Amino acid sequence: MYPLIKPLLFKLDAEKSHHLAFKFAHQALRMGLLPNFSEPAQAHQCMGLTFPNRVGLAAGLDKNGEHIDVLARLGFGFIEIGTITPRPQLGNPKPRLFRLPEAQAIINRMGFNNQGVDALISNVKQAKFTQNGGILGINIGKNADTPMENAVSDYLICLSKVYAHASYVTVNISSPNTKNLRDLQSQDALDDLLKQLKQSQLQLADTHQKYVPMTLKIAPDVDDEQLNIIAELLKSHRIDGVIATNTTLDKTAVTHLKHGNETGGLSGMPVRNAATQVIQKLSTALAGALPIIGVGGIGNADDALEKINAGANLIQVYSGLIYQGPALVSECVRAFKRV
User: How many other CB atoms are there within 10 angstroms of residue 330's CB atom?
Assistant: First the structure.
């Protein structure tokens, strides 16, 4: 049905169509009319977790964990929600989400708009997906008005609150839409952040008698020197995984298109090669010390396999889902069964 619905959704403002699509999906779920797109697949072990399949949803589509059970019907092996912050915030002024159909791309400057960590936890507790053992990642960040010198505190607050409710936790330091956030990728700042988060993770594991893996999400715009530093810090602090990559600030491929010069992070097909190159370099630098979750420009099964061949253990989709619909998840799951 998605090919029939898509032209109607694409006539609306991107953010409005996002909310409308979920409104109809929830109604269909309540009426028992929402299909289950799950495909039989071989389970995959990663970070001490058993993933039903290797195809996940990237953070950003469901910031508050309001749509977990709807998304679970699409056949994902895991779902990542967020980015969440300690306190609710509105995010950046609208419009802040733009489609670039000619490039199968999206530019967003959402700015971590969310209802706050407590609201997310309430939603997670009500989700049947988590009650039934579904693998749920929770992506955490900092509030926009928290000074950078206090950024670590925001991450520690979120980690402490979501720990008991997450299958794994992702630390997002790579969004381009919160001022100076990417400064946390610098060596000294990242060293301190990972040190404190790891200490908290181990304390929480002792408190809850449950070890919850922690991943770091990085940008595609890091140079080779930065990437090697990040890899060494991930290993030295025994971080459980890395997600490569977030959106890019490089809009060279889309500047000639409508909305191509909008401020924000670019995702979709134009970031595919950059993300794959980061995965390849990370894979070499990490030498198997921790797994990589590949994301960026996955629009079909070949793109998904490209990420795996580059060194990723799992993949996530987002923009490709907007352009291709639920069939993309099934296509990727089937492709992984053949390798």
Answer: 19
From first CA to last CA, the distance across the chain in angstroms is 29
How far is residue 71 CA from its own chain's centroid?
14
Residue 175 among the catalytic residues:
yes
Query: Rounded to an integer, what distance in angstroms lies between the CA atom of residue 230 and that of residue 89?
Result: 29
Give me the helices (H) in the chain, please: 2-10, 14-30, 68-72, 117-126, 128-131, 151-162, 187-208, 224-236, 272-286, 301-310, 319-324, 327-337
The DSSP bridge pattern shows strands 44-46 and 49-51 to be antiparallel
Quote the pTM value.
0.98
Residue of 17, 167, 174, 175 marked active site = 175
- What was the pLDDT predicted at 307? 98
Burial zone of 101 (CB within 10 Å; 0-12 exposed, 13-18 middle, 19+ buried): middle
> What separation in angstroms does the CA of 211 have from each of 44, 49, 184, 228, 246?
19, 11, 25, 27, 26
Q: State how far the Cα of 58 lies from the Cα of 276, in Å rounded to an integer.
A: 16
| Contacts with 246 (C-beta within 8 Å, 6 or more apart), sequence order | 172, 174, 175, 176, 217, 218, 219, 220, 265
Does pLDDT of 338 surpass 90? no
User: Does the structure show a pLDDT above 90 at 330?
Assistant: yes
d(CA 158, CA 275): 27
Asked whether the beta carbons of 257 and 102 are under 8 A apart, the reply is yes
Q: Which of 172, 180, 132 is CA-nearest to residue 155?
A: 172
CB neighbours of 224 closer than 8 A, spacing ≥ 6?
281
Closest CA to 316 of 247, 264, 252: 247
22-31: per-residue pLDDT in tens? 999 999 999 9
Omega of the bond prior to 40 within 30 degrees of 0, cis?
no
Cα-only R_g, the chain: 18
- DSSP state, residue 58: P
